[in-house]
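FW: tagging you since you asked about this chain on Friday. Here's the raw sequence from the shared folder, copied in full. Didn't touch anything.
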Amino acid sequence: MNSDSNPEILMNEFSAAAEGDVTNREQIYELLKTAFDSGKKKEFSELIFNARYVCGLKKILGNRTIGGDVFIEKTFAEFKKYLEKVIMQLKELSRHALPDIRSGFEKQFLAPDQSSMANVMLLIEDLSAFKHFLNETSRKI
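HL: got it, structure written out here
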C-alpha cells in the first residue's frame, strides 16, 4: 500500500523524520484520518497550507527589526485573519470526526480561552511541520 494513501504509515514516517519534535502527533493523525475517511483531503491540505502561512507570519511578527508600523499592522491583520481561518478549518474538519475525537478537539483547541489558544498555536506549528515534511518528500494528500 502506498504510504500517501495510509494515514498511519504517513504519520509514522513524519514522526520519524521529525525526530520527536511533534507535540500533537495524535491530533494530527486524527485530523488526517478524518480527512481520509470523510473525503476531506483537500480541506486538510488547505489547513496545513494555512498553518504554514500562519507560522511564517508569526516569525515575521517576532522579528521586530523589520521596519515600519504600517508593515507590522498589516502583517498582524493578516496573521489574525489566517489564524481565524485555521481555527474555522479545524472546527469544520473536526465536525467529521468521531464524537469522542470531536469532543476532545473542542475542549483542547476550540474553547474560547487562553489555554486553547496556546494549544492551537502548538498544533499550528506541528501542522506546519507536517506540511514541510510533505513538501520535502514531494508528497501530496
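FW: The longest helix spans residues 69-94.
HL: agreed, and The mean pLDDT is 91.
FW: great, closing this out.
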